[in-house]
Design goal:
Strand content: 25-35%
Bound molecules: FE2/S2 (inorganic) cluster
Number of strands: 19
Largest sheet: 6 strands, antiparallel
Structural class: alpha/beta
CATH superfamily of the largest domain: Nucleotide-binding domain of ferredoxin-NADP reductase (FNR) module
Order of helices and strands: EEHEEHEEEEEEEEHEEHEHEEHEHE
Helix content: 10-25%
Shape: globular
Number of domains: 3
Radius of gyration: 20 Å
CATH architecture of the largest domain: 3-Layer(aba) Sandwich
Strand order of the largest sheet: 11-10-13-8-9-12
CATH class of the largest domain: Alpha Beta
């Protein structure tokens, strides 16, 4: 069964199946609605249902409070229609950000290699290219029917080749059960995307801080590749925080980039080892280097704890929320 969903204040009408979320239907039509986790946990996609009946799905009680349910709010990434609907959401897109409709893609694994302990690089050659903004993510289909979110590390200029950095999660269905167990080059995989509002903002001309924890590096790599290829001139400082020297990956690539481009600075940081470079967590080093960070624009990606602490350090350094873009990596397992 399909229902018609009208999205206000746009007035756009889309068709949405009963087994499809409103967010999915909108994104596939190229209608942008705010979202981050696509999982019912972050609350970014909260919207008001003005008319009709919806199944609220697997909305976290923390992200959608009982009182909000009673007022007719829903999380559109998990809500499915039970009748025709009218929903009201925040539909404004930040200027300069392209909208790429969500698409399903199939492809073949070209590379599956260990790049650090418990981290694999997986490169997928798609049958048909996927358009995305640098920083966005895909949902990878796990054998058995579930999906897992992974940020794209490759360049949007080469949409036929999707690179992912995947962190192992103990007993994780996707990682221990598949990617770290049996996945090899040649295997066919499917995915959909692009998702997320974490992406490079081309109209922000301030110097850029890229703040990554662990495999939160992936979207930053996509942004850097994009900057190099398009010749966009920005001063960029990248912090990459990991525990030990072994966990540091792609360091040579960043060192070469730094040697070739005046505008780029690479600052790897180890929280557990002392070494020739700097030791400490990214938020602490940031506080040391930037007692005042106003006039910058910051992109933060890592574990929820890393992101929360980095946000605090940035705000203390007088950066406003409007100057900070964040992506939390939920334990994807
Ligand atoms: Fe819907 Fe996170 S709760 S995008």
């Amino acid at each position: 069964t399909t229902h018609t969903v009208r999205i206000e204040p746009l007035g756009a009408e889309i068709e949405c199946r009963e087994d499809q979320t409103v967010l999915d239907a909108a994104l596939r039509e190229g209608i942008w609605l705010p979202h981050a986790c696509t999982h019912g946990t972050c609350g970014t996609c909260k919207a008001q249902i003005l008319e009709g009946d919806a199944d609220l799905g697997d909305a976290s009680p923390y992200a959608l409070l009982e009182s909000e349910r009673e007022e007719g709010c829903a999380l559109l990434c998990v809500a499915c229609p039970r009748s025709d609907l009218v929903v009201e959401g925040e539909v404004d897109v930040e200027e300069g950000v392209d909208i790429h409709p969500v698409r399903d893609r199939a492809g073949q694994v070209a590379v599956a290699e260990d790049i650090a302990p418990d981290v694999r690089r997986v490169v997928i050659t798609l049958d048909e290219p996927l358009a995305f903004n640098p920083g966005q993510y895909v949902l990878l289909d796990v054998p058995g029917g579930e999906q897992r979110p992974y940020s794209i590390a490759s360049s949007p200029a080469d949409g036929g080749r999707i690179e992912l950095h995947i962190k192992r999660s103990e007993d994780g269905l996707c990682t221990d059960g598949w990617i770290f167990k049996s996945l090899t080059a040649g295997e066919r995989v499917t995915l959909s995307g692009p998702y997320g509002q974490f992406s490079f903002r081309p109209l922000r001309e301030e110097p850029v801080l890229l703040l990554a924890g662990g495999t939160g590096l992936a979207p930053m790599v996509s942004m850097l590749r994009h900057l190099v290829e398009t010749g966009i001139e920005r001063e960029v400082v990248l912090y990459h925080g990991v525990a030990t020297q072994e966990d540091l990956y792609d360091a040579e690539w960043f060192e070469t980039l730094q040697a070739e481009h005046d505008w780029f600075t690479y600052r790897p940081a180890l929280s557990r080892d002392s070494w020739r470079g700097r030791s400490g967590r990214v938020p602490a080093l940031l506080a040391e280097d930037y007692p005042r960070a106003s006039g910058h624009v910051a992109y933060v990606c890592g574990s929820p704890a890393m992101v929360a602490d980095t946000m605090k350090a940035l705000m203390k350094a007088r950066l406003f929320p409007r100057d900070i873009y964040r992506e939390d990596f939920f334990d994807a397992a």
